[in-house]
Design goal:
The protein is α+β, with helices and mostly antiparallel strands. 27% of the residues lie in helices and 23% in strands.
Amino acid sequence: MLRQRSVTRLLPIVLLLIAPLLAAPVKSAQDRPLQDRIAAVLSAPDLARGFWGIEVVSLSSGKTTGETLYSQNADKLFTPASNTKLFTTAAALALIGPDYKFRTTVETSGTLDRYGRLNGDLVLVGHGDPNLSGRELPYDLRTQRNDDPIQALESLADALVQKGVKFIDGDIVADDSYFAFERYGEGWSQDDLVWADGAPVSALTINDNVVFVNILPADRPGEKAFVSVKPFADYYRLDNRIITTPAGTGRKFFVNREPGSTVLTLWGNMPLDDPGANEALAIEDPAEFAAGLFRQLLEKRGIVVYGHQRTRHTELATLSTFSVTAIAPSHGGSDSQSRPLKNDQPITLASYESKPLLQDVRVVNKVSQNLHAEILLRLLGRERGNSGTIEGGLEVLRGFLTQAGIANDQYVFYDGSGLSRQNLVTPHAIVQLLRYCSTQSWGAAYKSTFPVSGVDGSLSDRLNSPRLQNRIVAKTGALGGVKALSGYATTDSGQVVVFSILSNNFNLPAKRVTDAIDQLVQAILDDAPAGR
């Protein structure tokens, strides 16, 4: 009885103590500090084994400074993968300009007589146009190609016919000397060089410097699969060992090309009921490819070529990227540094002009086009620096980043695309770049080139819920063990923020890390107004 009275007396006291707890509402995600929301995502044991670098800064309209809302390892160096393209494309828009146009020409130092005989070489001169292909511009939600990947070369060949050219006594020369013969970046993986992602860089780029290899099963099991190449089927010699197997057996095939070789070896099996496969494979020497293809197009139009086909390169060793030699910007003229001086200036028989540069920057950032980013880097060196080389472009890029307020110990770049494993950058440097760009006259155009969440580019199938769609514009990045996402976002409170999320050193399925990054972005969007 005594025990019962004691409990009765204590009950009101206990109720009095817990009443505030019962009345307190459960905190929603928006009520928790951003730091706690991010920590909740990164607390997963598998994610904690890698390295994370994150910075989130409030971007007030028209201001160059903003409050740092979150920072974790923001001054540490990370492999950025394709977030490298943010720097290359920003510099191109700032220093080359969104309205710049490339010009591809057909020139000769010879003479064309009244009978249509060209007494001299016919020279196809590239000046860096990355879209001599079937890609349709402007970019609209996704990359689209028409059925004619060599339409630009065909228009040039048609122009020569209209000019009255019937015979060419000299050679067909493909000239990509506007940039140095420097096809690959330092730190690129050899595995990439066979595929479109690692296509060689050239001032004369046809069809993104790839051929499309189409593979179809034969009519009966045991027979070799049917393999075709487009465009210019004669460029590669095919060693086809793919065997057609009975329906339902599963597809498995491999492709190999040794560096420096023009032999494609294909082996494996393709089931009888397989719809077929189409692979984009990189070519070896873009100028050589262009010379052979252009000659073929001319001969198809009845123009007789008596000479050979050859290339004209600028060897890297002939250039000094350390001298301070001013080169005036050019929009398609001859380069005396690239080619021997001649007494007679060549005449232009035909030309092809590109769309404005901004349209290609949109392709670069929307779909993360490596080759085009590398062309932009060399264009920076050729137009605003000492030479059309990687180092020439990087020197110009360093000057631009200094102007943007980014210290040179915040980054190390070896290419313009992010393929190089040696590239390093801090999340803070990316955020500072994006903040700087937002204050520039070309900043809105630059931002318009980013993928949009749930809409297009590399974010078309990410962050695509009705709540998140259209609220994030950001550049993706991916290499083995590397994932990145950096850009602009609008929070639930209407605040515009700049963010960079870099992750390195993961041995996890790529989707696991991508999903974690998307969760981090959602945590940022849940943010309450600054200062809460």
